[in-house]
User: Fold this.
Amino acid sequence: MELTLRIYGIINKIINYLLAPFLYLYFDIFGKNGKVPPLKNPILEISAVDLAEKIRSREFSSEKVVREYIKRIREVEPFLNAVVENRFDDAIKDAKRADKIIEEASLIYIIENYPLLGVPFTVKESIAVKGLLHGTATISRKGMRADKDAIVVEKLRAAGAIPLLVSTTPEYCVTWECNNYVSGRTLNPHKLSTSPGGSSGGEAALNGAGASCFGIGSDIAGSIRVPSHFVGIFGHKPTSGIISIDGHFPTSMDKSFLKFLTIGPMCRYAKDLPTLTYLMANENCRSQLRLDQPIHTKDIDIYYQTSASEFSLSLWNVDELIQRRMLEAVSHFKSNGLNVKRLNPSYNDHHQHGDFIDMNDSLEISICSLCDVDDIPDLLSNDKTSPRKDLWNELLKSMFGLSEYTYAALYFYVLHATNGFIPKSRKEHYVKKGKVLREKLINKLGTNGVLFYPTFPQSAFRHGESTTKLSGVMYTAFFNIMGFPSTHVPMGMDESGLPIGFQVIAAPYQDRNCFAIACEIEAAFGGWKF
Assistant:
């Protein structure tokens, strides 16, 4: 534990408490409040895999499905502000072509070659969709368009799926709140005065509102799982490297960056996760995932930990209700005969035998590992014809609204420049500690274990709070560093009507364990609700 970082955490909490009344007045009293209109069409409540089956069996035409989703997007967009640019006209043409294939081809041919034929989906703007905007929410790239599809979009198109739009992100995808100077602020469909998170916040907002059948997001420190938590959907950060990130911006050639950043599915139904992950995965990784092999929930060992540490003055503590809901899931599996254990039931017993898995320093480990990336995408020198702008000067200007960059994005670069207020001499210590913990967790989880762990310490925060809540990164970024797969699972609502849940984590290439448990939790506790 680093004293300077923890002191900074205390200061951050004090600032948050001082700002809270003003943010409440600005967003709850004088801003947009309430939630988006309810769903009216049952077509919008069908999972992607079931919808694909209904389209190819001609229960619905692809054109009808696509038009219904377009209608829903147009209904909720004035509330959410989650769409950067759409391709609705081209999507309807794609749907008509899909319906023609269904008329002419055999059912077996369609199932084998186009498993998602006619199913619409949405894409985070940082992931290229040919012809659509690809600026990733920064003024210097405003108006830039993708000249080709990202590989993951190519794969889904090849499976017959139809992209509808690209959705909002924060500037350069470097914070947990979708607010930028290009497209503005994105709102949470459950409570408009709160954030849908980031950086896959636009995808989360659309999916949570039932305006997307499924979405594609990216995650380097929780950017799929935290937004999924905030809006109450399933979001999967896959095993590192199994899905190509080619076509994602920002990018880097640093090996650690390429390992930490992942692309994955965001959806309302757990049953979609295996199919989407399989179709998105690199061909040479599919056999390692064994997603086509049967798996029985009863064969999975469950470990759980409701918080990284005991009560902390410097860190945001996990809400009691989130911990309680996790324990309800634990009790469910225990009553069904599964092997369920607390990760560290006794500090003294396990520590003396050398197998204590100390998550208390996961914030320091995450920060040092992320700050160890040398070739980070540089926001301040994006325009290659001009000299790099001074970070500290731009940060000061941003406090008065005078910078072309958002304060939240610049704040990230300050953290990187200062190594998260951790002495550089300590960086190697925490990087090494992370590697040791990784091996311990791999040995603990094996091929048939999962870990229940918080996704974020609380439900969706109010707009403007992202920089004071950044210590919550310790719960998600740690598993990007580890390269482990992790699925956020929704577990109902809190007292204010906001979704809550937790993540299910497995050892590398054991994504299917996460999916099996997610499906069981959905069946037992209801999953996505709106």
About this structure: The longest strand covers residues 486-493.
